[in-house]
Amino acid sequence: MTTTSPTKKPGGARIAVQRFGTFLSGMIMPNIAAFIAWGFITMLFIPAGFFGANSPFGWHWAPVAEILGGGGDAATINWPGAMTALTANEDGSTYQGYVGLVSVMITYLLPLLIANTGGRIVYGARGGVVATIAVMGVIVGTNIPMFLGAMIMGPLAAWVTKQMDKLWDGKIRPGFEMLVNNFSAGILGMILAIIGFFAFGPVFLGISAVLGSIVAFLVQFNLLPVLSIIVEPAKVLFLNNAINHGVFTPLGIEQAAESGKSILFLIEANPGPGLGLLLAFTFFGVGAAKASAPGAIIIQFLGGIHEIYFPYALAKPMTILALIAGGASGVATNMIFQGGLAFPAAPGSIIAVTVAAIGAGPANLLVVYLSVVVAAVVTFLVAGIILRASRKRDQEAEGDSFAAAIDQTAANKGKESSTLGALRTRAAGTTGSGTTEAADRDVDAALGGAAGAVATKQLNNIVFACDAGMGSSAMGASVLRNKIKKAGIDGVTVTNQAIANLDGSADLVITQNQLTDRAKAQSPDSLHVSVDNFMNSPKYDEVVEMVRAQHETK
Q1: Which of 10, 206, 334, 543 has the smallest number of CB atoms closer than 10 Å to its CB?
Q2: pTM above 0.90, yes or no
């Protein structure tokens, strides 16, 4: 029987930054599809887009580009009912031009989506509604896309709503709950929108101006590559989300709205450094690291899962210098040749980078490809020198160092993931160590020996839960769903959720072992199973057999 290891309570500045970065990422990542949609519309219909008046391919699609991209003369085109606004010509004269989709989406849709998501994270649907109202005040109180304001004002408004509700929790007379709830949220939203307009708007404008000035300073004095000294080590320690989603993404969106692309989207997302490091381990590494590196290249470069190369850097910390050199080289290449992306590339795969780069033209795509190649080559050369210099010593000491590095990566992230679990499985298979004793752990009362408890708990609703409710938990849910389907079992739903969204309705909750305590606190009446690897845990077979036995005894 396996046992549950006690969950370590994280602490310290690194964990605090990680959690802050995870929170910011939780606001951005669920809305990436909207960013991509805006990017495609921009890429196709602005004047310099594929179908615009100044199309690099000569594919002008008139008057559709002028309507959707904005700026078309309504009196000339005469498309009825579309929104128009007073538009200025280059000579200063004005006319009624179509608003289009591009400016409206970046000004209103994207910030409001971020605000709503942030509000929901803090206080559910009610928090999301008030957050959206409040951020609307910030948006119309400024003249730039207000992503930074949405990421701050949205969660803040939801928190204020939560505190307000505590004031009269349990004190409302029966029958007046809906009246009080709706009016209180509406009035608070109104007040926060007004405050956002007059107070927060100017503050966020100032913050954006300061951050923009810092970036402009780095660009003016050719110092932007220096950011790699911070970004590359931060990625390995999972501290990059706070920088990427808190600074680079908001500023990058502003730059892309003005010039059609931004170099800031590529500072962290460039897959070149990770590719170069994995190639170096493929040719010059030893043991499990060398054997598993080729497979990791596919996951990192094509899948965009950068965390796959972090254990390699931790197994040989000196190679972080190679990542810094490669990252700086890639940034320098984009800075010199004016390369950038039209919208964020998420995940950071070469496929996503290609789609986000081609919107600014074929020449820009070639520059971006060059930056990836340069970053990979520089990282490969520097890492190769480091690995060859210590190759003999590494061969003599080769043992559990790579497995330990995988464990350290999971500890840095604050949780296990399917990617790291698969990497651990490959490494164990390569070395023949059979170190699977800790591969999957369960909560003892769920599957280990409390047969009576299991028998009396009918499992119809199974939920995989992780931090964001996306990615690894979705993959795990898919795996178990397929197993249950192949077993011919009906009437069982398998879904994935964020831990914060668990509402106690799940019969069984499956989490990675570092997150089980949080899940139990959120859904105490559910059975809980803890695994290390969402992709191939043997606990899934136990769950399937338990569900099958319950259905056979109905």
Answers
A1: 206
A2: no
